[in-house]
Design goal:
The protein is an all-alpha fold and 129 residues long. It has one domain (2-120). The chain has 5 helices and no strands.
């Protein structure tokens, strides 16, 4: 999303400072977002979050083009993002073990999907000829 915001500003004729402001504003809006795919797939929650990220990127680009300062420079935003990522528990990092993936509904969906996958896999006891 941050790269998209920067690219939008660049394509719309913004200067380098505006590009970096757009990137910084986007990172500030998205810091701390967990990755908790239900059943390890992107349908829930990633697809909707990506659509939201696109809207944030567009808004951030427009804010930067209006010469609004991000206040915190982009390099410091990237450092903060790394610090937050390093301090986050592993279950929130694309493991499908935390957040929405760990809810009752998330677990029920996961069980249904995994059971249907098992049924279509070849039987381990059957020897291939």
């Amino acid at each position: 999303a941050a790269m998209a915001a920067g690219a939008m500003v660049y394509c719309l004729g913004g200067d380098n400072d505006s590009v970096f402001n757009a990137v910084a504003i986007t990172i500030q809006c998205m810091l701390g977002l967990v990755c908790d795919p239900v059943a390890g797939l992107v349908e829930v929650t990633c697809v909707v979050r990506n659509a939201s990220a696109a809207a944030i990127a567009n808004s951030s680009a427009q804010i930067a083009l209006a010469q609004v300062s991000a206040v915190i420079p982009v390099d410091e935003c990237v450092d903060a993002m790394g610090e937050i990522g390093n301090s986050m528990e592993d279950r929130y990092k694309e493991t499908a073990l935390g957040g929405l993936a760990a809810t009752l509904t998330g677990q029920q969906i996961s069980e249904r999907i995994l059971i249907s996958d098992i049924e279509i896999l070849p039987d381990e006891d059957v020897k291939e000829e």
